[in-house]
Amino acid sequence: MALQTTDIRNFAIIAHIDHGKSTLADRLLLHTHSIDERRFRDQVLDDMDLERERGITIKSHPVQMLYSAPDGRQYELNLIDTPGHVDFSYEVSRSLAACEGALLVVDAVQGVQAQTVANVDLALRQDLHLIPIINKIDLPAADIPTCLTQIEELLALPAEEVLLVSAKEDIGIDEVLEAIVERIPPPRPGEDDLLRGLVFDSCYDAYRGVISYARIASGDLAPGRRVRLMSTGAQSEVKEVGVFKPAMAPTDRLRAGDVGYVITTIKDTTEIRTGDTLTDAANPAPKPLPGFREARPVVFSGIYPVDSRDFDALRLNISKLRLNDPALIAQQETSAALGAGFRCGFLGLLHMEIVQERLRREYGMEIILTYPSVEFHVILKNGRLIRLDNPIHLPDPTEISRIEEPVIKARIILPVRHLGAVMNLILERRGECTATETIDPTHVLITANLPLHEIVVDFYDRLKTVTRGYGSMDYEPGGYRPAPLVKLEILVNGEPIDAFATIVHKDAAYAKGRQLAQRLKEVIPPHLFQVAIQAAVGGKVVARESIRALRKNVTAKCYGGDITRKRKLLERQKEGKKRMKQMGKINIPQEAFVAVLRSTD
């Protein structure tokens, strides 16, 4: 018997990174018999090698479960497991747009973290019903009273609604399932029977084309129907619809309230956008569903193929990746040193690293990434404003009136004993603390304003180091402010390398230039002539390192005799090296481009 819309529950699991979302999802799948013990494995919804290696969720994963309540009533539970890292908050926002409720997981040891607060804000903006859960209650260091206090004080959720769970030890899972069907409302009925489906994710299959993940808001969708995408106007015929159990399982149709996948005849990745509305081509809905906010990249970097002949393959693979990761922004550009490539925008440094790894592993691309940058505002003396995300395009200093850097408002939750170290770290990165709030006797919340380009590379790692792993951070845009910024260029053998150009604070130019030069000296191999690595600001060299020359022993064949014979051979070698230095090409290995991203602090 087909289930009614009132028997459907759509929900997500949200939490800070490593608070047990994937383990809780595993237990829900086992308790609803959506997967049997024989095929079960930990992190069953995390199907990427990268997710399993790092133990983190990168992509949202939908799955449908059938749950039989104690009273005999059967429910359809549509779960979307979401990432927890701040760089993937856009994945969370898209998942929440397809839900009516969410399980909010808090670690019983770590308590409420910065990303927990941010995810709660996202859920409340979507008007979702939250079920707070304290996970890992079996651990000896679990502090349940403190967690209850933090949930009430920071998240404004009543303590009596909190469920106590240990997903690893299978404690409290039945209570979670009961709370889902009792507290989360069923899908809201549509205003009419016209087809409306929100596309909240997509992926590309080499044989089947574009596969869209959709939440059906009204009407129904079956194979053979002709549909239209409301933003692009693209029309196609539906070949297959189905649900995730957790693998794709075809069905005869998707009804209002269902979450599933749609396979059409569309093969071009540019014709489908995440956040678009699917509707009937012959009888379309008058207006699209409200989507979700567009992703705003905060970190920019160039992606270039190691071999220029692979550019077309890179372009195709980036378009496929963007279909599955709409937060990735890409625009074609050309570099004098690296050739044709793409200027890409990312939500953070981890997001950039994951995109780089996915291009290498999933598509077999050998690529080079340039030094990460952020978007600056350059105001010229004639009043014109330039939005600059690539340092090599910075105008001549004589034309610039001022440069404004982006600022973020950061919320940092940490143990009180590490307050001094974190304050020093904020001041070191030219930040200022605006407020300090005590959460409980052992934890404090710091609100600080920080320049964005001071935190994109290694601030999060440094925060984890100085707080022994107990600090967490979330941030939001805070506008722009003027700053004395200059362009730092790296010259190898007298030639500027675009990939290493960056914009830095005037007072930090010397230290940063020396640091980059030293890193490059370690990774660029010796050549047959001496190679100079220089850091320059406005044509003035502020730091220099030299790579020794490989030297053949040309005097080895001389066994005694006049010393002038040896000098003659050495002079000839010297002249040859001078000519080679003028004509020779420096080989910069791929590791050099990665090395400049690593902190040496």
Please, what is the oligomeric state? Answer: single chain
The fourth-level CATH homologous superfamily of the largest domain is P-loop containing nucleotide triphosphate hydrolases
Q: Write down the overall geometry.
A: globular
* CATH architecture annotation of the largest domain: 3-Layer(aba) Sandwich
Please mark out the parts with pLDDT under 50 across 5 or more consecutive residues, or reply none: none
- First-last Cα distance: 63 Å
Share of β-strand residues: 25-35%
CATH class of the largest domain: Alpha Beta
Count every beta strand, where a strand is a DSSP E run of 2 or more residues: 28
Write the layout of secondary structure elements.
Elements (H helix, E strand, L loop, with lengths): L7 E8 L5 H11 L17 H6 L6 E8 L5 E8 L7 H8 L4 E7 L6 H12 L3 E7 L8 H12 L7 E2 L8 H11 L12 E10 L3 E10 L7 E4 L5 E10 L3 E4 L7 E6 L12 E4 L18 E7 L5 H14 L4 E7 L3 E8 L2 H15 L3 E3 L6 E5 L4 E4 L11 E16 L3 H10 L3 E9 L2 E9 L7 H8 L5 E11 L2 E8 L2 E2 L5 E4 L3 H15 L7 E7 L2 E8 L15 H21 L6 H6 L6
Parallel strand pairs: 1-3, 1-4, 4-5, 5-6
Antiparallel strand pairs: 2-3, 7-8, 7-13, 8-12, 9-10, 9-13, 10-11, 10-12, 14-16, 14-17, 15-16, 18-19, 18-20, 20-22, 20-23, 21-22, 24-25, 24-26, 24-27, 27-28
Helix pairs in contact: 7-8
Describe this structure in words.
Strands 2-3-1-4-5-6 form a six-stranded mixed beta sheet, with helices on both faces. It has a six-stranded antiparallel beta barrel with strand order 7-8-12-10-9-13. The protein folds into five domains: about 5-185, Rossmann fold; about 195-280, Translation factors (Elongation Factor Tu (Ef-tu), domain 3, Beta Barrel), CATH 2.40.30.10; about 300-370, 2-Layer Sandwich (Alpha-Beta Plaits); about 395-480, Alpha-Beta Plaits, CATH 3.30.70; about 485-595, Elongation factor 4, C-terminal domain (Alpha-Beta Plaits, 2-Layer Sandwich), CATH 3.30.70. The termini are far apart. With about 600 residues, the chain is of the alpha+beta class. The radius of gyration is 28 Å and the shape is globular.
